[in-house]
Amino acid sequence: MRRILILIIFGTVGTALLAGLGVWQVRRLAWKQEILAEIESRIAAPPAALPADPDPERDRYLPVRLSGTIEAGEIHVLVSTRDAGAGYRIIAPFLVDAATDDAARGGRRILIDRGFVRSENRDQPRQPGPATVTGNLHWPQETDSFTPEAEIDANIWYARDVPAMASALDTEPVLLVARSATDPGIRPLPVDAHGIPNDHLQYAVTWFSLAAIWAGMSILLLWRSRARKTG
């Protein structure tokens, strides 16, 4: 009886713990879905002027419409898209007009992510000049300890490191990701929530599956113990 009691406690506690982790992941899933819905709503909101002092947390994904001048000089960030394969994001300096600047001073220079070009079109000439751009402010977190250093001489970057790009192009550390076209040869890659991981459903299924397996194995062990006892 002592062995059977231990098996019952062991099976019940293990199953409850694993099922509890599954329930926790379901709650996390609902929380993450609310966050993603909020981000999508923020991305699609009506565009505003450029804040006087943009903040990476407060103003992340803020829709903005700016008039100004796309200036000479580009940074090429290596990227791969599902439909077009390998290519580059084109990052350029943008001189902001006062009319679309909350600071009402104009003359500010920020970064603009103009979009994607295929690898073979990387060095194709793109004329700078006046432009009105609609997009979203973003401070992407794409670098970690495994990210290669930018090849400055070859103008190949492996991530959108906003402070480093701003230093290279002598702009504010502010990036506007265009969702409107700025050049016929550049395809905009606008900000969206699809790249934000949401794996909580998979985790929940895993924990519930482990709970079911634990319960099944516990029942099997109990059955075998009783069978030996009655045998």
Automatic annotation (TrEMBL):
It is a multi-pass membrane protein. GO terms for cellular component: plasma membrane. The keyword Glycoprotein does not apply. The keyword Cell membrane applies. The chain crosses the membrane at residues 204-223. Keywords: Cell membrane, Membrane, Transmembrane, Transmembrane helix. Residues 120-142 are annotated as: Disordered. It is found in: Cell membrane; Membrane. PROSITE patterns: SURF1. It holds the Pfam family SURF1. Belongs to the SURF1 family. PANTHER family: SURFEIT LOCUS PROTEIN, SURFEIT LOCUS PROTEIN 1. This is SURF1-like protein. It comes from Pontibaca methylaminivorans.
